[in-house]
Design a protein that fits this description.
single chain, six-stranded mixed beta sheet, 16 helices, 13 strands, globular
Amino acid sequence: MGGLRKLAVPFVVPGPCGVAIRDRLKRLTSQDEMVLRAVGEHQGRLSSRDLKERCADGHDHSAQTWAARKRELTARSSSRIAGAITKATHDQWALARRCQAAHIQNLAAGIKTLRHRLSLPIGTPGTKRAAGGYRSKGEWFRKSRRLAALEARHVAAVADWQAGRVRVVRGGKRLLNTRYHLTQAQLTEDQWRQRWKAERWFIAADGESGKRFGNETIRVTPDGEVSIKLPAPLAHLANARHGRYVLTSTVAFAHRGAEWADRIEANRAVAYRIHLDVGRGRWYLTASWQRPAVKTIPLETARARGMIGVDTNADHFAAYRLDRHGNPVDEPHRFPYDLSGSAGHRDAQLRHALTRLINWAVRVGVAAIGIEDLDFAPEKTREKHGRRKRFRRLISGIPTGKLKARLVSMAAERGLAIVAVDPAYTSQWGAQHWQKPLTTPHRKMSRHDAAGIAIGRRALGHPIRDGVSPARTQLRAWGRTAPPPHDRSDRAGHRTAQAEPGHRGREGTRPPTTDRPPGGPSPSGTRTREPSASNTVRDAPSTQQWVQDSLMRTG
């Protein structure tokens, strides 16, 4: 393989293990909204205080400190609310630790690149493997200062990691920084403050199996009635027995409503969260629960009916269908999307493109979709790509994490498996071995379409390239058997057959693309020329009569 890196083995991506559905709380009275705001503010203060204590504990956290914090919260709310708050605190602290580790890794990668480039003479050209030296002394000097800044940040981040110190902002760091850029965000100070308060509220409760309707703190009946167990300081606001407040609004989950109803009627755990969308002025209730771990189908089963290879790009999916032998079938398909605008618009565009892709996969009858296991985290560094700002924006705009999560969950609902493959060399080898042979006057193949074929073949377990000639590659793409390279088939070994032994039609000719008679009109209306006789000397019929020369005879 020369200098090529070792490729990872394709694998079937595990299915989703959680479900979340949402419905709007309509026709809430002013009393209902007042109670929800009071509960959110009270529990939000408790959550902020608990998060502060957890961050102060650092590595000294233990089961005893957890129990002590929970006892303190129970006296100010209830046991179940205290458990929900401490669990949310631990999840947030763990997420901050993972982000801190990723930040340290990113800083280390930038420092390594800067040190390498600074060690090279000025003007040294780069290679495909590594960047070269800087262009001028001025750029070298500026990068040396940036190296010192990154090293200082790295030392501080490592010190925080070793001490167990994290920095968490309840409500989000982005919204916090928006306070200093209200004009650009087109917000007033009052509007920003309302959003800030709403994001810091806490109205959530984890489910409990065996309890009535799967949750005692926020209870939703099969009829859609929503009631909340009020904390002790707000018990005077209750309008039902046992310190509960029943909302006038009812919910009816249109999506997965039957599955949700089956769970609560069996008293299985369901977690609920109530939040306010300040921009729309609407209250929402989100229900979530976990699914039992389902074993993924074997890789060979996913490959049995062929594969659809999907190349992910910044503005579209390029997909190509392949049979189980790795032969391209039909025409390339493209599913465009626009990732500009708001987060809601981007999410809707991505969802729509994935829906079209999955519907097409179900319609053609394949069992799996092959996709690259993309992760651009180490590729987005400013130091690695330097002036290539357009390329950095391009790879930063591809939502790799959200794409994989949404594709897996949506495909699982339609009974499709997702096969992840190593993304190395798919675009390069696809364009080299598949783009030109498959290009015809009626089919325009792009580099992305060829990459889809390469991804599909790798997911099926076939090599992308075999080192054969383009003509033989084209025969292989048509599903035909290439002729022997010499006058005897046993001189150069077996024929390069794409189909497996025993497959019907393996040695057959390529079927006609249309049912038109020879020389008849094509589907586009133009008349094609009939096959003409060969003009080569070897293929022409011989009319020469051979006569033996008498002078060559010997007695």
